[in-house]
Fold these 4 entries.
Entry 1:
Amino acid sequence: MEQPKIIDDKTTNYRFYLIDSKRLYPSVTTVLNYDKKEQLKGWIKRVGEEEAARISKESSSKGTQIHSLIYEYLMNKDEKIKEMYPVLFELLKPRLDVMKPIYMETPLWSDTLKIAGTTDFIGEFNGVPHIIDFKTFKVDGGEYDFSILETYYLQATAYSVMAFERFGMKIQHMKIMKICPWKYSEAVFDFDVTFNKQLLSKLVAKIKDFYKHCVVFPQIQSA
């Protein structure tokens, strides 16, 4: 089967995955964050549009770069990350060296949940099957913000369901690896969680809420 096509709706800023001519699913990050628009507007108003745009662009660029460098290290043993981020690499290396990837940066979807997404890592960590998601962050005011951990856990839970549906892999262990790559603030934090009914129930509730309130989906173009 061909890879799903990613569709970014510029009107709503939602992301969708076109699986085939009959299936169009919202991304799991869209589903989990669509109701945070007011918070985002408040932040933009507080820092100003220009500064908000700069911060968002910088954070996105840094996140993409770190993901790419980790991918190259794990898949191709490319140590460019060591050259570019020597301090961060020393923090990451003990973790990366016990990771055995099976799938990385792989688009997935669930026909049961009717959502899709791209997982960072499916494989083994210390010999145990894991879903691992890499999250970059920046120190703000000298403190680390862990307030949105549950959202990350729900995202990993979605990937676990997708991995089971797509590959028949039953993965119970999930890890969120929070990475601060900014110079003089380098840090790596691990947050581990096990797949459980409570997280799955919260995820299902969020999906139902999204489908209830998001009435505008991009039109599937026929061939």
Entry 2:
Amino acid sequence: MTYIAISDTTYPKEIAKIIRKELKANFPDTKFSVRISRGTVAVSWGRGPSEATVKEIIMKHEGGFTTYIFVHRSISNELYNQIINDFANLTGKSFDGDGTIRIDDHFSWNDVAHQLASHGDLTEYHGVRSTERNVGAFYSDIYEIY
């Protein structure tokens, strides 16, 4: 991973420039949006690295004059539905096209798709598969995107 050293007194505009450079160096094929508003930096993208991977690179810049850094991955409805359908096929659950319907006491189809997409690298989506873990509080503990 490529990192750029900064001080605690770096302003949000400078932080945003540094974040853009680091993201471009680490993920040259992914298009990121880096915006500044009132001392915060918002980073968003679609297909590409997981939220955890992006946060690992950029969250060290939070603090000082840049109070908060927000990350948000935007996923197309088409890809969301593909993730849900692949998960339904893998688990044998029936998906009727309504992502708001709960599949258990805690999670809806949309919740499951969000969990899996948040933790997975979507640069090249192939499907959903079981992990070697058999238990977990979230579906993303047991299933993953590959």
Entry 3:
Amino acid sequence: MLFETEMVETNLGAKEQPTMKTRSILAMAVAAGTMGLAGTARAVTVDNLAHLASDPNNSLTVDDKLFDNFGYQVVGLSSFDPSGILVTASALGGFEDLTWTGNMSIAGPPGTTGELLLTYTVTALNGLITSIDQFFVGNSVPGGTGILEIDELVLDPSNNASVASSHLEVNDIVDPPGELLQGDNLDVVPPLGKVNVMKDIGMGITNPNGGLVTVTVSRQSFHQVPAGGTPVTESGTTALLLSLALTGLGLVRKSVV
């Protein structure tokens, strides 16, 4: 049997009152030749981007991670609605994730471009952040006729100095591992208890007849050590999500100049 208990906290602004609910799911797992008992616990907090960005003190908390100071800037996106972008902080297997889901897209004739800048602050209350893994799900219509790139910049809030940066694009949708020449490693050097993160999503239409480029999921997971400790190794959770991102991808890779 598989027992899963999920704690979900929502805070969706004045129109939807914050609620806390506990949901227990009992499922029978049957596999030929195997029997076992497994227990998993996942903590989740959810809000929408519009509410989070309306006040720098609006926040999400999961385990020892505090996410606040959310912001966004939009140029050229199609029908972008920040209240329709869900931001989820979750924890499973010793790692915490921050995920944006919703309509982040452009549509139009060739040459159409769009950009979405997402910003936030993350604080580790009981350690130092050593690295941030990345993952996204994107698509183009028609397939193979768009450009999609995601650049990440991590800053030390005390002096605004860069402590990590990375570049993701089609055919490189997930970290780790990272290619040093391409510059997609997002290792925080030196490790810090609090960092500011800037995520810049750029899109472009290349099909002669026009088209669509979209991102539906963008996720980051956080790794840390106690002060003076040893870095935690990658759990493999991010790698398991690779197959999800591959589904529907039809974008062309843009050369880095």
Entry 4:
Amino acid sequence: MLALKCIVASAIVSTVALLGPGDEIADKVLQFAERQIGNQVGHGECAELAAAAVKAAGGQSHRKLGRSDPNADYVWGKLIATLTPKDASAPDIKPGDIIQFRDVQLLTQSKITQKDGKVRTHSSTVTFPHHTAIVRSVNGDFMQIIHQNYGGIRTVDTKTIWIGSPKSTETSDMTTTENQHSFASGTMWVYRVRK
């Protein structure tokens, strides 16, 4: 929590919280999710992590906000952004927001240059046909998410995803890897939990 303290003659006169509406709930959602890393929440379904985090934060259940059958695109609060490959601008996404994924494919094309000058390429795809995750951090077009039930793993884990087409470079003693990432298909709805 960020606070501004006004001090007069060495006495604290007041503390003004610098939080926007819903930030306190988002912080509680994030704290709950981070405490679950390495554990399984409920039966390990992806939405169970988000639902438990919302409940722990005192937020409104997704069951009250929209359809909640297993194939529904769940609503988790106030819609902050709808991200698609054609419109992936999302300056308002914050840690503690919840992302609902539908038919999302994220691609990476990598050019790996070895110290001796040899070059090889590699492609990888991350898919989220129907998934729910909590935003842990945002860094430009990259987001780290907290989620479970991905790739057959039902425990809570983290993953870095992206929107748009950002580039990244990784270097080690032996190689330099240049990555071109792209948001190829699907939709991500980003929600801010409400009371």
